[in-house]
Structure formats: C-alpha cells, structure tokens
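dumping this here before i forget
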Amino acid sequence: MKIIIASDHAGYKLKEELKEYLKQLGHETEDLGTDSEEPVDYPEYGKKAAKEAASSGNKGILLCGSGIGMSIVANKIKGVRAALCHNEYTARAAREHTDANVLCLGARDIDTETAKKLTKIFLETEASQEERHKRRVNKIE
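structure:
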C-alpha cells in the first residue's frame, strides 16, 4: 500500500521514524515534506498531502506537534476523513466507524512506539460494513 505522509517541523523526526517503520511493514511512502526541523507553516504540508491522499485513493498520515492543526486542515479537503488518534481505541474506531483515510498524530503528545502501534492498527483495520456506520459516513460526505 502507498501511504502519503507529511509533517511540519514538530513532526519531522517522528515522520522519518514512521517512514522506516512503514517500509518494514512493506508499504511505500510518498513524503510531501517538510524536510527538516526548521519552522514551517503546517497548513501548506497538510493541505498538499490531504489533497494527494483524496485524489489518489491512498491513505495518509499527517504529523504536527499536537495533531490538531493537521486534522483541521485535512478535513477541509473534499474526500478526506482525517482522524486525530492518540490511543488504540481511537485508531481502530477511526477506521471502523468513520472509514477515516488520513491518520493525524501529535508528535509532542505520543512517543514513537505508540505512533507505530497506532499506525499499524489504522492501516490494518477495515471499515465496518454495518449499515449504521455506512449511513453515517455517507452523511459526512
């Protein structure tokens, strides 16, 4: 699976670690920046990556300090259902209940091992086919 990934400066280190982890899991990544810890404006990177994820049909991962900014930016893009996750339950529910296609993580909120665990859960969990969940996702769209 190809994963679109981007971060701001606060999420840069975690993004680089997740890219290696995704490779170990057999995934290809498309890194849309940033390329250092030099301060940048997260909306530029979040918007570009969310648009690419929506248009390509690939899943995305966005990182910033809290994950909040990236999730707000991503959810403004048509076709994106971005979920800010911070534990196993939210990562699983994001996929099962809302068919989220972009995972947002707060690099200053969670450690690397937690980020890896949430990423794996997010990528391996299928969207629920229960009518109530499908109906709700359709209402989001």
